[in-house]
């Protein structure tokens, strides 16, 4: 498929003064989805998010039309997300895809937590994340595309089933499943949950701070503390482990920002439960990625390298269990 040609043919529908697409190129990363950056000849900067015909789709991933609809819904609430320009139709020649405006900023978590360029905005990022999550969680559910619903026990059971089917025997994971089953909080009214709100899926500008929340394919309805806890998983701190919120902030700033923006009071203990469950979930995912590499289903070095990180999550879980005790 000639993606640049298809984008040029679509140019007038993307912007009334455009006649063709320029400099279309695929960005690195993404095994199941393609991301293309391109410009129109009227100066409009855009991004194409596309699932190729041969691309795999996990059971948890949303169809791209649903993902685009969520972006539009939270955009109307004032959340910092890319503006959706078009949900592609069959006649567009791009398959399952949508086009959004291109934001400017940094998404590499290591740079955000370490580079001097971001020193001025890092102190306010945790509170800003709380504010943005409060906005997302307040999105009216009426009119949203169909979404799965999950709570603490449901998530725990889902990942334990994956773990059992793998045949793995990891003592730390065994202990963590039992510990979290005993500690699971009671369900609360479900809200729109991003599902992968973490450093690495946030676009940060050195002068403006958080300017974009990306990658909505795992969105669902659930406990608002799930998003806050996932942001605090040690794997997303990029070595800055003393800053539990994304490697750039502390719990109090995140929770205060959330409450001050109408998100309500969330107990630190509830956040810490979801942080621990997030570490366990990521550990199970790492095991699955290594299994994919070892079986020959995916021989990419990326899968093997991520698979090794299961041991990191075990260390995190031991520390969390010790602190809880």
Could you tell me the number of beta strands? 9
β-strand amount: 5-15%
Q: SS-based structural class? A: alpha+beta
- Give the CA-CA distance, first to last residue: 57 Å
The largest sheet is:
5 strands, antiparallel
- Number of domains as seen in the coordinates: 2
Order of helices and strands: HEEEHEEHHHHEEEEHHHHH
Tell me, rounded to a whole number, the average pLDDT.
94
Estimate the global geometry from the Cα principal axes: globular
Low-confidence stretches: none
Helix content: 40-55%
CATH class of the largest domain: Alpha Beta
- Looking at CATH, the homologous superfamily of the largest domain is Aminoglycoside phosphotransferase (APH), C-terminal lobe
Question: How is the CATH topology of the largest domain named?
Answer: Aminoglycoside 3'-phosphotransferase, Chain: A, domain 2
CATH architecture of the largest domain: Alpha-Beta Complex
- In angstroms, what is the radius of gyration? 20 Å
Strand order of the largest sheet: 1-2-3-5-4
């Amino acid at each position: 498929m000639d993606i640049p040609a298809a984008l040029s043919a679509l140019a007038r529908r993307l912007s009334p003064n455009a006649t063709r697409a320029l400099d279309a190129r695929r960005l690195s990363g993404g095994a199941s989805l393609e991301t293309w950056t391109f410009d129109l000849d009227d100066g409009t900067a855009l991004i194409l998010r596309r699932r190729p015909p041969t691309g795999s789709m996990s059971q948890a991933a949303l169809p791209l039309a649903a993902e685009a609809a969520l972006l539009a819904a939270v955009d109307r609430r004032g959340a910092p997300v890319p503006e959706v320009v078009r949900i592609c139709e069959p006649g567009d020649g791009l398959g399952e895809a949508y086009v959004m405006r291109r934001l400017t900023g940094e998404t590499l978590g290591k740079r955000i937590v370490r580079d001097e360029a971001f020193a001025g905005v890092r102190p306010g990022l945790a509170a800003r994340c709380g504010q943005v999550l409060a906005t997302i969680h307040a999105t009216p559910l009426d009119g949203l595309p169909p979404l799965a619903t999950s709570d603490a026990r449901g998530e725990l059971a889902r990942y334990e089933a994956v773990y059992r089917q793998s045949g793995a025997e990891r003592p730390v994971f065994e202990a963590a499943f039992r510990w979290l089953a005993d500690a699971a909080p009671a369900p609360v009214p479900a809200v729109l949950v991003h599902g992968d709100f973490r450093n690495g899926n946030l676009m940060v500008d050195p002068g403006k701070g958080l300017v974009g929340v990306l990658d909505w394919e795992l969105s669902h309805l659930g406990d608002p503390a799930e998003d806050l806890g996932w942001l605090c998983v040690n794997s997303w701190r990029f070595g800055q482990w003393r800053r539990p919120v994304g490697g750039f902030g502390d719990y109090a700033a995140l929770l205060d920002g959330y409450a001050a923006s109408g998100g309500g009071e969330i107990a630190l203990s509830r956040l810490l439960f979801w942080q621990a469950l997030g570490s366990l979930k990521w550990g199970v995912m790492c095991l699955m990625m290594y299994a994919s590499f070892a079986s020959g289903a995916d021989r990419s070095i990326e899968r093997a390298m991520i698979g090794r990180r299961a041991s990191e999550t075990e260390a995190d879980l031991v520390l969390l269990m010790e602190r809880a005790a």
